[in-house]
Amino acid sequence: MFETYLPVAALLLVAFLFGGMLLFSAGFAAFLFKYLPSSDVRMLLRKVFPPFYLFVIFSSGLAIVLYWSFDQFNAAMMAGVMLTTVFARQVLMPAINQATDSGNKRRFIWLHGFSVILTLGHIITAAVVLSRAVV
Predict the structure, then answer these.
(1) Beta strand ranges found along the chain (DSSP E)
(2) What's the alpha-carbon Rg for the chain, to the nearest Å?
(3) Cα 4–8–9 angle (5° rounding)?
(4) What does residue 41 show for φ and ψ, rounded to 5 degrees?
(5) Which residue of 59, 63, 91, 95 could cross-link 78, Cys pair, CB 3.0 to 4.6 Å?
(6) What is the mean pLDDT of residues 12-24?
(7) pLDDT category, 42, cuts 50, 70, 90?
(8) Distance (Å, rounded) from C-alpha 101 to C-alpha 122?
């Protein structure tokens, strides 16, 4: 009986993930830069990104579990999101912080650009998973 609710639960979870990533990336960060001094924004974002990445890791991990029994493609897509977010949290974020702290602007720009592209990829991946439920 629980199996009949798995597609709905998985869909809602990925919708939650998609909305959370989109709101954080496009809304929250832009809002902060508009209303706070840059130095305050940088310090705040350093504190916010680790929990944000945990949100993405946990949500995509749970989506893998929910999709596994009936849609391995979506499970694999969510696994890609989860694994690359672990990389972003454990490797990329510390490298970005180190580049900022050392004043290496060129390295910061490159790493930050990569993190933005990675996050856009996560949002697009979640959109693909969501669209498969409709098509």
Answers:
(1) none
(2) 16
(3) 100
(4) -65, -45
(5) 63
(6) 97
(7) confident
(8) 27
Question: Rounded to whole angstroms, how far apart are CA atoms 77 and 67?
Answer: 10
103: left (phi over 0), alpha (psi -120 to 50) or beta: left
Q: Are 73 and 80 in contact (CB under 8 A)?
A: no
The pLDDT-based confidence of 4 (bands split at 50, 70, 90) is: confident
Nearest of 26, 104, 53 to residue 96 by alpha carbon: 104
Residue recorded with tokens 């990104």: 49
pLDDT digits (tens, 9 = 90+) for 54-76: 999 999 999 999 999 999 999 99
Residue 19 in 3-state DSSP? helix
- Going by C-beta distance under 8 Å and a sequence separation of 6 or more, which residues neighbour residue 125? 77, 78, 80, 81
User: Which two structure tokens, joined as six digits, stand for 107?
Assistant: 């390295």
Token digits of residue 99: 């580049």
Lookup result for tokens 């998609």: 18
Residue 1 confidence (pLDDT):
59
Phi and psi dihedrals of 73, rounded to 5?
A: -65, -50
**Residue 57 near residue 82, CB atoms below 8 Å:** yes
State the CB neighbour count (10 A cutoff) for residue 88: 22
Domain ranges of the chain: 2-134
